[in-house]
Amino acid sequence: MPQRFNKLQKRILDLKRKKRVLILAHNYQTLDIQEIADFVGDSLQLARKSAESNAHSAILFAGVRFMAEMAAILSPEVPVYIPDPKALCPLAACLDAEKIRAKKREYPGVPVVVYVNTTAEAKFEADMICTSGSAVEVVESLGVDTVLFGPDVNLADNVRKHTSVRIIDLDEEGHCYVHNKFNLDMFKSMKAKYPDSVAIAHPECPIEVQDAADMVGSTGMMAKTVAESDAKVFLIATELGMVQQLQKQHPKKKIIPVYDAAVCRQMKKHTLEKIINVLENFPEGNRVTVPEQYIPHIRTILERMNKVRGQGPTAPIDAHL
Ligand code: 13P
Ligand code: SF4
To answer: Is there a contact between 320 and 127 (Cβ–Cβ < 8 Å)?
Structure first.
């Protein structure tokens, strides 16, 4: 069925065409925002898309701030704007540069891999960046036996399951408040209710939930799995925006949230009205920039991450220890 747009959406489509703005939206955005985006995806896919934005005069990034920062780093000629500048990921906020430096002093010479959900200041301290969709490959690409990893402890547990590399947490308390709400009891009771379902969990969920799932992966991987599977019923353990997207795209499949109150308040700060404000006024307060001194190093490690998966061998690591 062709998409029907409301008045605000039509205004956005008109403005973005006239002003040549590329709209990127994360899978957790509300459906009305996903519908007007040029591309909707997970954090790795969005980072890659932002690097291909040369034909545009600006990028409007509907996601949390660290994601927009990556776009600003990978696409330096194109200004990046965020609909609500207060959309900050609390997981990213928990790991500051000093915590990383302290761990580096404790484990001299051990490379640091930070999850993309981190501030620019934290990324500057890292040797490598990973997303939920590339964490295992990134860790293995380093060719070492021990890695400092963070801030998400559940993603760290996921990596431990898939590699023999020793993973030391950069922050023993680091977690996402949305994914940490999932627990084994809710997962098991949903599975008992829908025994023929395929259960998919995000690697930010606690490890016992990941262990009970049929598949664990990034939001991009969830979209691919549901699209390619012949199964009729799916249990989804991640933020609700992803569930709503899957329900809309696969009306003949039954897509069930494992927990229907899993909402990321920070992702949901963006609205159509705030997007229109950016497209009309390009306010300086909505522009996302990264301090100059961090850019070359973060760019190098982001590009290195982008090369890890499906794009041939990884570039050699110049240790930034
Ligand atoms: P994805 O990379 O899987 O989209 O995850 C981003 C995120 O913030 C999960 O909470
Ligand atoms: Fe951060 Fe969790 Fe929201 Fe993802 S869902 S942006 S990790 S708070």
So the answer is: yes
